[in-house]
Write a structure and sequence with these properties.
The longest helix is centred in the middle third of the chain and has 18 residues. This protein has one domain: Rossmann fold. Helices cover 36% and strands 18% of the residues. Helix 3 crosses helix 4 and helix 4 crosses helix 6. The protein is of the alpha/beta class and 213 residues long. The chain binds zinc ion. Zinc ion binds next to helix 1.
Length: 213
């Protein structure tokens, strides 16, 4: 992704100049971000924000693609650094006990070999956001067979189902869910419903990118 303006060091996927040109949302500085409004009436969230706008054919799409399908450590490092920076700058008053990466299904994990949301969490830690990663959320696939489903049921079943490892105690803990891209919020909503059963004190959400509907 070299543009020729600047030279890249070993950790950079884009140059310093291109980084300043990224489409930042500045949601972290807002009292109520557009991302929070997505969850109104669906699930209780203390705070939710995304760092970058995700648009097709953009540099953000390329960086996310590198993270999601190529396990590109430089892509994770850049996004994790931007996420860590905003969290450290704007969340000093609400400390987080655990970061929780949104899991991918076991089948996907086997074929892909890594979970991109966990890569983001690890990159956030490497960039100074010193919060433990709690990797106990499990993504299950929908149970109904295709033939039985009408259109409505299919829509319902397209929402992923999550399960929490019963050994993990999240009671009264402040949680931060981490994901790569937010689109409809369906995945994050279902993850929140699952986590609320464990009676945490609060749930916040951060995603690297946000797709404008
Ligand atoms: Zn550049």
């Amino acid at each position: 992704m070299e543009c020729g303006v600047d030279t890249l060091n070993t950790k950079q996927i884009i140059c310093t100049h291109c980084e300043t040109q990224l489409p930042f949302t500045h949601f972290s500085q807002m009292k109520q971000s557009p991302v929070e409004k997505i969850f109104w009436g669906r699930v209780s969230i203390e705070k939710a924000f995304s760092i970058l706008y995700f648009t097709k054919e953009s540099i953000v799409q390329k960086i996310i693609f590198e993270l999601k399908y190529k396990q590109n450590k430089k892509a994770a490092y850049l996004l994790g650094r931007l996420m860590a920076k905003d969290l450290i700058s704007f969340q000093n008053n609400s400390p987080i006990d655990y970061m929780i990466p949104i899991p991918i299904s076991k089948r996907k994990l086997r074929s892909r070999g890594f979970n991109q949301s966990k890569l983001l969490c690890e990159a956030m830690v490497r960039n100074g956001y010193n919060v433990p990663i709690m990797d106990g959320l499990v993504k299950l696939k929908g149970s109904l067979s295709q033939t039985k489903k009408d259109r409505l049921h299919r829509a319902e079943n397209s929402k992923p189902i999550f399960q929490l490892n019963p050994i993990i105690n999240l009671a009264n803990k402040h949680l931060l869910i981490v994901d790569d891209v937010l689109t409809t919020g369906a995945t994050l909503e279902m993850a929140c419903h699952c986590l609320w059963k464990a009676k945490p004190a609060s749930i916040q959400i951060i995603t690297a990118a946000y797709t404008i509907a």
